[in-house]
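Appendix B, Record 12. Input sequence as logged:
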Amino acid sequence: MISAEMQSDFDFDRDGFQLALALLEEHFSATGEPLPHGVPFDLPTSLPDHGIGGHAALEALAPIALAGAARLRHPGFLAHMDPPTPWFTWASQLWAAALNQNLLHPETAPAARPLELRAIEWLAPFFGMTGGHLVPGSTIANLTALWAARELRGVEEVVASEAAHVSVRKAASILGLRYRAVPVDSCQRLCPDALEDVSRSAVVLTAGTVAAGAVDPVQAGATAAWRHVDAAWAGPLRLSPVHSGVLDGIETADSVAFSAHKWLFQPKECAAVLFADTVAAHEALAFGGGYLAVANVGLLGSHGASALPLVATLLAWGRAGTARCIERCMALAADLAQLVREREELELFTEPMTGVVVWRPLRADARRVRERLDGAFVSLTQLGA
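Logged structural output:
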C-alpha cells in the first residue's frame, strides 16, 4: 500500500510535468559542444534519509541528466550508431512508463501485447521472416536466435567473422557452444571460403559491422545447420527501396536480429529477433508456470511496452517516411565520403555501404585530429587488430 503522504506522487501532477517539459526545452534550446565538458555531478554519495520531493529532484537532476548528456542531434555529432529520437517517441514512452504494463501477463497488458505483435507483423515481412518478438537489444536478439538454433537443430558451434559483434561470442559462451571466428576480407566482410564444415554449426552473418558498417555475404553458409543474420545496424535498410538490395538474400536466413533503437530512431531499449519458422522457434523457447496464463516465450520475463514508441513512429512516418529518414542519412554519409576523397591529407577506408564512413588522416595522429575538431565529434576505431 502507498502511504498517505506519498499518494500525491502517484497522481497526475500538471505542474510537475510542466516543469519537466520546461527543463527539457531548456536543454534542447541550449547550444554547445556535441560532448559537454565539466558537467557537475552534485549528488550525495549515500542514499539520503529524507527525500526532497519530485519537483526538487527534477531540478537537481536536470544539470546532470540533461545538460550532461551527449547531444546526439547536434550537427557535429558524427559518431556512434545512436540516433536522436522523434518527439512522439518521448510522449509514447511517457505513456508506457505511466501505465507500467507488464507483457508477461495478458491481464496486465491487454493492449500492449497486441501492439507488440502488430509491430512485428508490420516489420517481419521486409526480412522474409514470419514473426518474432521484441527484446531490449540485439545482444539479447542474437542470444535468443542461437538458443533456438541449439534447441531446434542441435548446433554444437557458432561461426562468425572476426568483425562480428562481441555479443555473438558472448551468446556462444552462455549457451555452451564452441565459438570459431573466421577471417574477413580487406573490406571487413566474412570470407565464405573460410567457413569449412558448418553442418553442425550456426553461422552468424553480420549486416553492418560496428567498426566499418560492412555487410557479410548474407547467403553464405548455405550448408549450415542454422543461419542467423545480425542486422542490428543495417537491418532497417530493408524498408528503403533505394538501399534494400544491400541485404538481398536475408530472407533465406533462419533468423534475423535488428535494433530499432538504431536506424528506426527508437529510444533505448528496442530491438527484435525474427524467425523464418516462428511457431517452431517460439515453441522451443516457451516456458510455462502455475502463475502464468500463457507461456513465457524467450529470455525475458516481465517486460514493458517498448513497442508503443515504435508503433507511434511507424504510424507517424509509414514505410515511405521511415525510408526517407534512412536515405537522408545514407546521402549524408556519401557526402562525407566525398569530402574525404577530395582532401589529399585524408584517406577513405572503403566506400560506405551502410552509412558508416571510416577515414583517417595520413600525416597526423588521429587522436590529436579529433581533439582539434571544433564543434564536432567523431569516434575512433582500429581495424585489422
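The longest strand covers residues 201-206.
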